[in-house]
Design goal:
Helix 1 crosses helix 2, helix 1 packs across helix 3 and helix 4 packs across helix 12. Strands 3-2-4-1-5-6-7 form a seven-stranded parallel sheet, sandwiched between helices. The protein is about 45% helix and about 15% strand. With about 250 residues, the chain is α/β, with parallel strands linked by helices. It has twelve helices and seven strands. Strand 6, helix 11 and strand 7 form a beta-alpha-beta unit. The chain has a single domain, classed as Rossmann fold (3-Layer(aba) Sandwich). The longest helix has 14 residues. The chain binds guanosine-5'-triphosphate (GTP) and magnesium ion. Guanosine-5'-triphosphate binds next to helix 4.
Length: about 250
């Protein structure tokens, strides 16, 4: 066992994607191999920057991740993407859709994409996700993006794993922006209001910023508007993330 783990880790460190995938599977099973894997990674970690993208089902997280990954690649950085429990009930099993959307990334050696299931595991985001982030870090990815469907506690646990947490919201007319802000501010470093192409979005964003206390010298968390499907606002999001990456 120990020999084979050592071998897997070594070939992963040498750039073998299959070994990386196998190690993530071992981590996913949270089996007895996990402590040894983590031990062996330790000297090789600490260079990457991780970004959690969370938010309610269907808010456009995957679309945003796709566009953001393209942007990061354009800047010459490599990317690891972990989709945790893809396919929320609302988008009705979007794994296939995500695959189609991400197709060009699958052809790019600078991108590694992996879906992980945590359903059924205790305590929301599992140790497996944290281990996968560490594996991608040791593998040499510059930026690691973790997509999770945020419902309540999930935002909290992703905030513990990721260096920066991005909360993707969609404001609907009739939303109580005061209620929305509750609980958000503590966990999100960056709030993205997506689907800004929709009627009345700008007005709602204005209300939302006011509810967060903007305009009174308050600038954190950053609030950005995007139209992920139209590739609008992605550069601003990248800059916000990069600012934090550079200051850490
Ligand atoms: N109008 C509009 N639609 C968008 C925008 N961004 C994404 N969408 C659409 O919203 C739907 C859901 O997008 P996804 O990216 O799958 O959302 P998600 O948050 O990843 O969904 P789950 O992973 O299932 O929680 C898709 O039909 C997208 O095309 C946008 O900026 N404007
Ligand atoms: Mg998604």
């Amino acid at each position: 066992m120990t020999r084979s783990i050592a071998k897997l880790v070594n070939s992963m460190l040498a750039g073998d994607r299959k070994s990386l995938a196998q190690l993530i599977s071992l981590a996913e099973n949270e089996g007895p191999a996990l402590p040894e894997i983590l031990d062996r990674l330790r000297p090789h970690r600490g260079k990457s920057y991780s970004v959690g993208i969370t938010g309610p089902p269907g808010s456009g997280k995957s679309t945003l991740v796709d566009k953001l990954a393209t942007r990061i690649r354009d800047k010459g950085l490599s990317v690891g993407i972990i989709a945790v429990d893809p396919s929320s009930p609302i988008s009705g099993g979007a794994v296939l859709g995500d695959r189609v959307r991400m197709q060009r990334h699958y052809l790019d050696d600078g991108v590694f994409i992996r879906s992980m299931a945590t359903r059924g595991s205790h305590g929301g985001l599992s140790n497996a996700v944290e281990a996968a982030v560490k594996l991608l870090d040791a593998f040499g990815k510059d930026v690691i993006i973790i997509e999770t469907v945020g419902v309540g506690q999930t935002e909290l646990s992703i905030a513990q794993i990721a260096d920066t947490t991005v909360l993707v919201l969609v404001l609907e007319s009739g939303d109580d922006v005061q209620a929305l802000k509750a609980g958000i501010v503590e966990v999100a470093d960056i709030i993205v209001v997506n689907k800004a192409d929709r009627e009345g979005a700008e007005r709602l964003v204005g209300e939302f910023r006011a509810a967060l206390g903007y305009g009174h010298g308050k600038t954190e968390p950053s609030v950005i508007t995007t139209q992920a499907i139209n590739d609008i606002g992605i550069e601003e999001l990248y800059q916000e993330i990069d600012k934090r990456r550079k200051s850490c």
